[in-house]
Amino acid sequence: MFDRRLIQSFDWVLLILLFLIATASVINLYSATCHVRNINSTRIIHRQIYWFLIGLTVFFAMTTFNYYVLERFAYPAYYVLVFLLILVLFIGSVKSGSRRWIEIGSFSFEPSELAKLSVVILLAKFFSDQHHTGQRKYRIRDLWQPALIVAIPAFLILKQPDLGTAVIVIFVSFSMMLFAGIYIKSLLIMVGSGLAAAPIIWFHLKPYQQTRILTFLNPEADIQGAGYHIHQSKIAIGSGLMWGKGFLKGTQTRLHFLPEQHTDFAFSVLAEEWGFAGSLTLLALYLALILWGLKIASESKDPFGSFLAVGISALIFWQAVINIGMVTGLFPVVGIPLVLFSYGGSSIVSTMIAMGLLMNISMRRFMFQ
């Protein structure tokens, strides 16, 4: 029998926040592609709306079952995604120098997008199980299992190569570990080990990845080459001033100076046309979405639901922070799209699946009172 409390507990705030960000995405995407050479604006807009509609469908589909059953499928789903990450290294299609996509007819998707969510679900199960056994604080030796859970997909994603997504997987996982509780001494050792491993990681990066980091440290060294993207992005953002140049009036976009303006640098288009006021509005929407996710986590009486909600909130947080930091010159360019805002089907659908699970947790919080 259908429980009426599910309807009464429907989280309208979460849905409204998603709708506002999606609307801003479509409007900004129209401006980023309209009358821009070599870009089919109509096709891109239609595909973005299409992906959002699919995303909305899976969003509601994720609310139709008790999220607690995900615990039973956490390991099988993880193994399937690891297999797909291995498979994509052999049969994946290459775009922009990376082998990330599996194509089935006219349909293509990135396994790495779903892998991020799979890692979050499995870590939520692990820490929930440990919580039930009375584990509240962790030392390094207690974290070898979650470290392995994270390391395998992160390594496979890095091999594509996709440094940005690998970093997201690591940062989100580390956020969940912090929420689970780590002794200060163990935390300092982990951070120190990460810094000590930096030279080793550096020599395993691709030459173009090393160039991006060097460009971040000295952006003026090669403005016409490696530093071109970030230089033009900062010009676009700075020229927006307080109120922006106006819709469809961004010169960096219209005159084809801003590269990847509908994907990785979509925020730069927004900042140029809507200024500091428009940028702050979008940031406020993301902040509200993240804080609302943490509120859902705090209200969940079920440890698995709490850890899952924290992981999903961290997923939104780190993707937004890294992209905006990237386009403003605060972080190296690592190819991370702005979540729910940049053009891209796999990212939208996987994020809407995560948002549907967040809604699921919110709607069923009364079941564990």
Average pLDDT level: 87
Please write the string of helix (H) and strand (E) elements: HHHHEEEHHHHHHHHHHH
Beta-strand fraction estimate:
under 5%
* Quaternary organisation of the protein chains: single chain
Task: Assign an overall shape.
Answer: globular
Structure in words:
The chain has one domain. Helices cover 67% and strands 4% of the residues. It has helices spanning 5-8, 12-33, 41-61, 70-91, 111-132, 144-158, 163-180, 184-196, 198-204, 207-217, 228-239, 251-254, 266-299, 303-327, 345-363, and strands at 93-95, 98-104, 107-109. The chain has a three-stranded antiparallel beta sheet with strand order 1-2-3. It starts with a helix and ends in a 6-residue tail after the last helix.
List keywords for this structure.
mainly alpha, 3 strands, globular, single chain, three-stranded antiparallel β-sheet, 67% helix, 369 residues
Short description:
This protein is mainly alpha-helical.
Annotate the secondary structure layout.
Layout lengths: L4 H4 L3 H22 L7 H21 L8 H22 L1 E3 L2 E7 L2 E3 L1 H22 L11 H15 L4 H18 L3 H13 L1 H7 L2 H11 L10 H12 L11 H4 L11 H34 L3 H25 L17 H19 L6
Antiparallel strand pairs: 1-2, 2-3
